[in-house]
Write a structure and sequence with these properties.
By secondary structure, the protein is mostly helical. Helix content is 74%, strand content 0%. It has helices spanning 2-10, 13-32, 34-72, 75-91, 97-106, 111-116, 119-122, 127-131, 133-138, 143-152, 157-184, 210-231, 233-247, 265-272, 274-281, 290-295, 299-303, 306-312, 317-330, 333-344, 350-377. Helix 3 (34-72) packs across helix 10, helix 11 runs antiparallel to helix 21 (350-377) and helix 19 (317-330) packs antiparallel against helix 21 (350-377).
Length: 378
């Protein structure tokens, strides 16, 4: 075994990369034929850009404007005060952590990092609690965007069932992360995340008319929404295109190079263990597993799958509830956890954070499924 490991480590990473790429696209090309594969990739990416990315960007702009308006007029502070009593009993976090939940829900995962850089904010936390903010904030990332998108598809109660599922998944993920940190570093239970002096910053309040406050909030929030919309373009075009090629099959006339054709590899694999996903998530079609897989890397890319799934008739209310729960809770944590923990200064704990959040996302999806089944019986 050690000999095999040493031989594997001796192979240059460039050769491994080439072998993986050649194997993947060689397989796809052998099924679809090379010209059809290339045409399908380009046409799928182009259609996703026009009909999905710009739609998501529009939602980002609107939700960003609403979020900034809520900050300006104290709605976020009000929500933070309402949620504060839940923090300690549910998440084992100080009450101020509720502000992080609201901010990430209205924007994206990294909002918890910018908030944690505030010395006054971090001074409320023990080190193990502070580190778990990565899991806590990620579970609510882009929550408003996900819910508004699902409502825009014609589903109303299901996204809020999914929100409850994400909430439960967040509890599991955050507490598992805290347990893992304390197991490796018991001293973090007593050490404060920030021991230095906290300097109160004087805030200069500029008098503005009500009209200017509303206008500036809407425009500034909309501008931040554009930034998020641009940021999701690579994930949607690259990840969604690849996932769709591995999910969909040929068209009625076979492979023609049209958009959204593929080799159906993921459904074939999921079908082998379909009974597991049917029991856990209530999925009635193996194609639906493409959403959780995509949400691991980017929730925006995962949302890009939904319209095509609906067009194929694969989606029901249960799937929307589960999609919302997993999409919110995971929200691309594989692509953000490393950077988030690195910015906090605890890069070595990345594997523990990822494992904890994987379990949390599964709990979120399972909870949403069974709550939806319960609500359906009422």
């Amino acid at each position: 075994m050690n000999f095999i490991r040493r031989c594997w480590q001796a192979i240059p990473s460039g050769i491994i990369c080439l072998l993986v790429v050649l194997a993947l696209f060689g397989y796809i090309g052998s099924v679809m034929e090379l010209p059809n594969m290339l045409n399908t990739i380009m046409k799928t990416a182009h259609d996703l850009l026009l009909n999905t990315v710009f739609y998501l960007m529009g939602i980002c702009v609107i939700t960003g404007a609403i979020g900034k308006l809520f900050v300006e007029f104290g709605v976020v502070s009000l929500l933070e005060k309402v949620l504060r009593p839940l923090m300690k009993p549910l998440f084992n976090l100080p009450g101020v952590a509720s502000l992080g939940a609201v901010m990430t829900f209205l924007s994206d995962n990294p909002a918890i990092i910018s908030l944690s850089q505030d010395k006054r904010f971090s001074s409320y936390f023990k080190k193990y609690q502070f580190i778990s903010l990565t899991n806590f904030g990620t579970a609510f990332g882009m929550g408003l965007l996900v819910i508004v998108f699902m409502v825009g598809q014609g589903f109303y109660k299901e996204p809020f069932i999914g929100l409850f599922g994400a909430f439960c998944g967040c509890i599991v993920s955050t507490r598992l992360m805290q347990r893992a940190v304390l197991k490796s570093y018991p001293r973090y239970a007593e050490e404060s995340a920030y021991d230095g002096p906290v300097i109160e910053e004087k805030v200069h309040v500029e008098e503005k008319s009500l009209f200017l406050r509303i206008l500036n909030s809407l425009l500034d929030g909309g501008r931040s929404g554009v930034d998020i919309g641009i940021a999701i373009i690579p994930g949607v075009l690259i990840i969604s295109t690849l996932v769709m090629i591995l999910t969909f099959g040929p068209g009625p006339e076979g492979y023609t190079g049209a958009a959204y054709q593929g080799v159906e590899a993921l459904p074939w694999l999921a079908d082998k263990v379909s009974f597991v996903f049917e029991w856990l998530f209530g999925f009635t079609d193996p194609h639906l597993m493409a959403f959780p897989i995509t949400a691991l890397g980017a929730v925006g890319a995962a949302l890009g799958l939904v319209p095509n799934f609906m067009a194929e008739g694969w989606i029901d209310g249960n799937a929307i509830a589960v999609f919302t729960a997993i999409g919110m809770c995971w929200s691309g944590y594989l692509s953000t956890h490393t950077a988030m923990l690195d910015s906090l200064g605890y890069r070595e704990l990345t594997s523990k954070a990822i494992l904890s959040h994987t379990v949390g996302g599964l709990v979120a999806g399972i909870t949403a499924h069974w709550v939806y089944m319960l609500v359906s019986l009422i």
